[in-house]
Specification:
Blueprint lengths: L2 H17 L8 H10 L14 E3 L5 E3 L4 H13 L5 H22 L4 H14 L2 H7 L2 H20 L5 H12 L9 H10 L11 H34 L6 H8 L15 H9 L4 E2 L6 E2 L7 H4 L13 H20 L17 H11 L6 H25 L4
Antiparallel strand pairs: 1-2, 3-4
Helix pairs in contact: 1-4, 1-6, 2-3, 4-5, 4-6, 4-7, 5-15, 5-16, 6-7, 7-8, 8-10, 9-14, 14-15
């Protein structure tokens, strides 16, 4: 059994245990899968606890990007609305862990370093926490991580443009913020992948590869873009996704006018990502993560390993650009994710930082890096325990 399979199984089992086999009440994707089965895009809305906006036709539509619902269709066909959305999140988390292992190994990381980094991804970020709950917002994050990692695995291997683009667009169809990384994915395809130096190519072969990649990528992007336009026209009557803006206008913490994105939100987002700490109390459990989250500074300090990455320079630069581009919509958004442990929006760019971490310490994890990863995992498990005990008790 290869390492990726083992990593995937471990990730799946750990997440399944952490989930306590729960079925989330925020099962928007189950409702949407049921709607698709019945040939419509609007859902049978059970009440305000399900994020769904009122469309121009008087029906309710989910706001979140649609991909996870497609995976649930076979299950919903069999068991109906009793389908367990959280189990899909658990499965996607296991696949993400297997993909992370394969990615690290293809980038040249040793088995020991790969194990450190996969453990960090699962327990030291919000991946485990999001996946064990499986709520609509959280499964979208898990799905985006999973497919981003799979796209990066292919870029670090055969770099088949059609498959890279298909996997990446699956990430986009889970969290649309991922579209910001499209220029970087396109550049990496043009370059020939994550690790291959352009100088190693025979000029004729490189030109042929680039022509073929362009045709393959367009063959995936064009129909996907057409589907996206059609999906928006069917829901909102416009070719772009206005669902989040409508939701912002209907949200009590939003505004009846304007956009959910704005420079005025950057200060709050930076505070959320880098400053916000748990509340300290005099009695057990002493440290309390508030509903609004805990900054990466306190939950995932091992991310600083990414700053050690130096070579290959084009790849390092590309990963930083991808991470920064994907972070922009989150920095401009009017809420930081709320109802969360840690900063779940960081999962949008953490797959790119994982590449940098693997490039930074490929052969041996430094002691201080191991300490930071160990600390991050302990904090992540504490967050899982706290939410299962106090905020979303499993008894």
């Amino acid at each position: 059994m290869n390492g990726a399979v083992i990593a995937g199984l471990v990730g799946f089992i750990v997440t399944l245990i952490a989930s306590h086999f729960r079925s989330t009440p925020y099962d928007n994707y189950v409702l949407f899968a049921d709607a698709l089965i019945h040939g419509r895009l609007w859902i049978d809305w059970p009440g305000p606890y399900i994020d769904a906006v009122l469309g121009p036709d008087g029906h309710r539509y989910i706001v979140n990007d649609p991909l996870p619902a497609l995976f649930l269709i076979p299950v919903v066909l069999i068991v109906g609305k009793a389908a367990n959305q959280t189990l899909l999140a658990v499965l996607l988390c296991g696949i993400a862990c297997g993909a992370a292992w394969a990615l690290c190994r293809r980038l040249g990381a040793s088995a020991a370093v790969s194990a450190w980094l996969v453990a960090f991804l699962l327990g030291g970020t919000d991946l485990l926490w999001c996946s064990m709950l499986g709520d609509v917002w959280f499964i979208a994050q898990t799905s985006a991580v999973c497919f981003t990692l799979l796209a990066l695995v292919e870029l670090a291997g055969k770099s088949r443009a059609w498959l890279v683009m298909l996997l990446f667009l699956c990430a986009v169809a889970s969290r649309f913020t991922m579209i910001m990384a499209l220029p970087v994915i396109a550049y990496l395809l043009y370059r020939g992948g994550l690790r291959i130096e352009v100088e190693e190519w025979i000029p004729h072969d490189l030109r042929a590869y680039r022509r073929r990649s362009f045709v393959e990528a367009c063959g995936v992007i064009v129909p996907a873009f057409a589907l996206w336009i059609g999906y928006n026209l069917a829901r909102w009557g416009v070719p772009w996704d206005s669902g989040h803006t409508i939701f912002f206008h209907q949200d009590p913490v939003g505004s009846p006018v304007g956009s959910p994105f704005g420079l005025s939100h950057v200060g709050y987002q930076l505070w959320s990502f880098f400053v916000q700490s748990p509340t300290i109390r005099d009695t057990a459990p002493w440290f309390v993560p508030e509903y609004s989250g805990v900054a990466l500074t306190w939950t995932s300090p091992a991310l600083v390993l990414a700053f050690l990455a130096r070579r290959p320079r084009p790849v390092v630069a590309a990963m930083w650009v991808a991470a920064l581009l994907v972070a922009i919509p989150n920095l401009l958004y009017y809420v930081n994710g709320t109802a969360q442990f840690g900063m779940r929006h960081a999962l949008d760019f953490e797959p790119f930082l994982l590449v940098l971490m693997a490039l930074a310490v490929p052969k041996r994890m430094p002691v201080w890096g191991g300490v930071l990863i160990g600390y991050s995992i302990v904090v992540g498990l504490w967050g899982v325990w706290f939410w299962n005990t106090f905020y979303r008790p499993t008894y």
